[in-house]
Specification:
Strand content of chain B: under 5%
Distance between the termini of chain A: 25 Å
Shape of chain B: globular
Structural class of chain A: alpha/beta
Number of helices of chain B: 12
Strand order of the largest sheet of chain A: 5-6-7-3-8-9
Helix content of chain A: 25-40%
Shape of chain A: globular
Oligomer: heterodimer
Number of strands of chain A: 13
Largest sheet of chain B: 2 strands, antiparallel
Strand content of chain A: 25-35%
Radius of gyration of chain A: 25 Å
Strand order of the largest sheet of chain B: 1-2
Radius of gyration of chain B: 19 Å
Number of helices of chain A: 12
Largest sheet of chain A: 6 strands, mixed
Chain lengths: ~325, ~260
């Protein structure tokens, strides 16, 4: 049986946040009498993640995804509740725990700006107590997986964002961690760089059975990497489960464009009891519930003269967008 | 603590920061020229103070030069290690890159205090030592083992006090986010360390000994060089340095509990 590697129970986090009224008066008031209030950004959440799972954290900006990741890797102390990651209390930041995890942030970098990435890799290797020979072996292996070579010897400031991100990944993985926390790793990357990064993460997960917790606003990252998603809405979990179940729940109907041999066939189909979205000459678009797709298509193909048909999935961004503004999904 | 690992990491720190700095040759050259001009300017200023009367606070010009030499060494150490690292703490906290430091299996205080060096500060340290040798000659001081070890102890204590003060201020960034001004105030107080403590009024002497122990930093090591120091003063400096160092450590660990990281 696969063991839980992350165990979160009734976790909450509050921050003291100061607010300021606009204008000069507000600024002066803010300077002398700063008004702070405690805001609960994470509200009593519980979940478990199994070893080797890739879990996507979804939510609007400010929903609390990054705060959860930072509490899981031990950067932020939780206000209430408990977290166990790989058997450790993260916020104690024990050496063995830190050797097991890594955090990659799309918008922050750890590479030394003026030097080639290879220098940062060897520095990290010495911090993780990895000898030079072993470090060289790991750098070679990871650079092959990431398809980077010459870039390792060019100063970081001269690398493109995609090359830099690959180097960041290499620097963060040189100690071969079991758990990867990725906070928007594809932010700002072009389509090809995003695809390469996703390919790498899939391969890394397959080869090492590493657990990956990922936040991203690019739906393609989520759909191609994560079978399971945790949706966060205003600090609370609104959905935790399989991504395909969520998608089915959110878009219960598919649109099917049918091209009939003649307009008469199209009229016949229009009057046969299906829900019709629109009809233009011999082309007709039907709306069919997911549960009845197979039986309906069988019926149409047997009883009507069909030239061609297309099943249109609703755009994923549109579907997921609904999650970000809704509180609960009972599935 | 695995000493071998820390030495290995420090070797890497030295290598990477030297390599980073050497990328900008002109900057290093400008820094070197600044260090030389700054020392010449300071000695000139000191000589002006001594022009009218041969003594200030009971110190001759030749003796006061020792303070200048120790100040130059300490300023060199500040520019080599403290300035590039401790000012960076503020940046780490403001931008949230302290996250990377805290997630490394290494002591975070060691990492952020020693990761960078500025090689041009070495010249200042060297100039300071040259001036010190010159002072030993003109003051006709006898070098012996106890004298050298006492000097080394007091200078090390001065470095610890200076480091702790700076580190303490930088750590407060976790709550106050911006503390550049406080660091600038500390740097300007350091200039005071170029003059003998006895040249100040009684109230200022108390202030610079008790509240901001700048006076300890240069005056006591200089008194050791001149054989003027009494045992209790050396002991006091050791105690002050130990208290400062321990508290800077405790304060850092305490402050980290309040670190909320920057938003992404």
């Amino acid at each position: 049986m696969v063991q839980n590697i992350i165990d979160v129970k009734n976790l909450s986090k509050s921050f003291d946040i100061s607010s300021k009224e606009p204008g000069l008066k507000g600024t002066i008031k803010h300077f002398f009498r700063r008004q702070t209030k405690s805001i609960k950004v994470i509200k009593d959440i519980s979940f478990e993640i199994k070893e080797g799972e890739i879990v996507g954290f979804l939510g609007a900006n400010g929903a609390g995804k990054t705060t959860i990741l930072k509490m899981l890797c031990g950067l932020i102390y939780p206000s209430e509740g408990s977290i166990l990651v790989s058997g450790y209390l993260p916020f104690r930041r024990k050496e063995n725990f830190l050797k097991n995890i890594t955090l990659i942030m799309g918008q922050k970098q750890q590479l030394i700006w003026d030097l080639p990435p290879i220098e940062s890799f060897y520095l990290n290797a010495s911090i993780y107590d990895i000898d030079k020979f072993e470090a060289k072996k790991r750098i070679k292996k990871l650079s092959e997986m990431l398809e980077i070579d010459e870039e390792l010897f060019i100063p970081v400031r001269k690398l493109s964002l995609g090359q830099r991100m690959k180097s960041e990944l290499l620097a963060a993985l040189i100690h071969e961690p079991n758990i990867l926390f990725l906070d928007e790793p594809t932010l700002g990357l072009d389509i090809n760089a995003q695809r390469n990064l996703r390919k790498f993460l899939q391969k890394y997960n397959k080869e090492t059975n590493a657990t990956i917790c990922l936040t991203s606003h690019y739906m393609k990252d989520i759909t191609s990497l994560c079978k399971r998603v945790i949706c966060v809405h205003e600090g609370a979990i609104s959905y935790d489960g399989k991504l395909d179940l969520l998608l089915k729940k959110l878009s219960p109907v598919k649109e099917i464009l049918i091209v009939c041999r003649s307009e008469e066939d199209a009229i016949k189909l229009e009057n046969s009891g299906f829900t019709v979205k629109n009809k233009i000459k011999n082309e007709i678009t039907l709306k069919i519930e997911n549960n009845f797709i197979t039986s309906s298509l069988k019926n149409i193909l047997n009883n009507f003269d069909i030239e061609d048909l297309f099943i249109n999935e609703p755009p994923i961004d549109e579907v997921i967008g609904k999650v970000l503004i809704k509180k609960d999904y009972d599935i | 603590m695995n000493l071998r690992k820390y030495l290995k990491v420090y070797k890497k720190f030295l290598h990477t920061s030297l390599a980073s700095e050497l990328e900008y040759k002109t900057n290093i050259l400008v820094d070197l020229i600044t260090a030389i001009l700054s020392l010449v300017g300071s000695i000139f200023l000191l000589s002006i103070f001594f022009q009218n009367s041969g003594y200030i606070g009971g110190w001759k010009f030749e003796q006061a030069l020792i303070i200048q030499a120790i100040y130059t060494i300490l300023n060199g150490i500040t520019n080599t290690w403290f300035n590039p690292n401790l000012t960076e703490i503020v940046k780490h906290i403001r931008e949230g890159t302290l996250d990377f430091v805290l997630l490394k299996p290494i002591d975070s205080q060691f990492f952020i205090s020693l990761k960078k060096i500025n090689p041009s500060g070495f010249l200042e340290i060297m100039l300071g030592f040259l001036l010190l040798l010159f002072c030993i000659r003109i003051n006709q001081l006898n070098l012996n083992l106890s004298f050298l070890s006492l000097s080394l102890i007091t200078i090390s204590c001065s470095i610890c006090i200076l480091y702790s003060l700076w580190f303490f201020i930088s750590t407060t960034t976790i709550w106050f986010v911006k503390t550049w001004n406080a660091i600038e105030v500390l740097r300007s107080f350091l200039y005071i360390g170029r003059f003998p403590l006895s040249s100040f009024s009684f109230s200022l002497r108390i202030f610079f000994s008790v509240f901001i122990p700048i006076a300890f930093i240069t005056t006591i090591p200089s008194e050791v060089f001149l054989g003027l120091s009494v045992f209790w003063k050396i002991l006091l400096e050791i105690i002050v340095a130990t208290i400062f160092l321990i508290n800077s450590r405790k304060f850092w660990l305490f402050a980290l509990k309040f670190y909320s990281s920057a938003s992404s």
